[in-house]
Amino acid sequence: MNRARVAGRTLRGSATVIATTLILVPIAIVVVAAFSPEDYFEFPPPGLSGRWFVEFFRLENMRSAFALSVELALLAATLSTVLGTLGALFLARRRGAVAALLQGLFLAPLVFPTIILGVALLLLYKTLGMPVFPGLLLAHCIVAMPYGFRTVLASAQALDPALEEAGQSLGAGPLRTFLLLTLPLIWQGVLSGWLFAFIVSFGELNTALFLTGPGVTTLPIEIFSYLQFQGSQLVIAAASTLQIALIVILVTAIERIVGIGRIIRAR
Amino acid sequence: MKSAWASALVVPPLAMTALFFVAPVLYLFWVSLHEASPSELYGAALTLQNYAAVFADSFYVAIIRRTLAVAAVILGLSLVIGYPVAYFVALLPPRRRMLVLLLLLFPLMVSNVVRAYGWVALLGRRGVVNTGLASVGLIDAPLDLLYSTPAVVVGLMTILLPYMIISIANALAALDTRYEEAAQALGAGPVRTFLHVTLPLSTPGVASGTLLVLLLTLSAYVTITLLGGPRSKLLVSMIYDGVTAFQWPHAAALAFILLALALALTMLVLALLRPARVQGTGR
Fold first, then answer.
1. Reported CATH class of domain A53-266
2. Cβ-nearest to B81 among A19, A25, A206
């Protein structure tokens, strides 16, 4: 009996060591490679150098892909959080088949194969003659919207409806009630939804794969085409490390604002 | 907020979802039902030929088989590795558990292209594994580890593993420990308690982790391309190739075959692991 208990503990412990190694080592290797002083990555590295970061900002296509990704993520996060918040406020107090259907629809992009959405949008845009940037922005919005929707829905459902009724019975209109009462109470959900949406948009691959155009490329797609057509140059490691650094900063921000528990449950 | 004014709230997100999610997918389905055209996106005549051609071609049938086999192996490995890890995480005190979960959540936010690149840097001909093995004298020439189906399996499995761990750990942590205590008080040993109490009660977490891993495996084009190369293509690679060759109706049909596979697997998982209601106060 005791042997089974010890075996269980050993199994759990060793699985955890294996899993965390397999999950984290590939990411750590990228960061180590980015600081290589040589033209090729050697392990262990013979020294440290920032030359690949300098190279990253020197390359016109890398710089513009980075700028486009940031711009796209800022706009897509903002637009998708506004839309997600509206949907969440509408659904927070509603029950029934229609509400369930709408909630399923708003969350569907989370599980829907995004590669199919990418092909579908490409065909639609070709038919409509949609320019590249707005097309890309709308695609990122669809992919990011469930994150804002879900975090705000959780905040709005935790809200006491009596508060809003009190606001309205004291003569505040719907807009005033929202700005002075609802928004201050749900802003944590809105903000963490925005940060999630930013992260999702910044790393988005499957729709952008089809929707980027010549000269209008996002950083993940630029990294992908570099890897595919020019081999693994270390400037890619620098680009990846910048992305990892940005995500570390954003995750820390989310943790400070809403706490870790909230993040885990929101997923 | 129950007024006509409040109902207007739903219009913008609904319009956005309808126009740029539902409509394009329906349009894609419509295109898949048409013959190809040399000049237009699709021809005028309606046909089921695009679907029939895929299933009549042994090349595509083999690709669909390989896709399902790869998905099954990735799922199996992520369950076998992920479950004990999730158990370990769930047994930690709350504060430490949250920290470990955050450490597992962070890789999910890093773009998959970056995580696949990490595996390229490890497994490539000049990669860490090859240079490491050469420097200790185990190999003379670099091994071809990359651009193979095992590389896709290992890379994709580790990329998706945190989804499995987090899903199961959340279910296990929400489990009421009094069930386990009751089983042990009634004389069940640790193995019996696990098999008859803990494991069945954690099925909702297993189901959601399984669904995430399966669905994301099916559409992981970038990871499959970077680690599998031209010889280990899966169904999703064929969709991309169809689009770049401007074979719109063909690519559209392949996309809906992928979607049908995803739906069928979802139903199968939900039927096998009917998420049982778990109640309790949690750890």
1. mainly alpha
2. A19
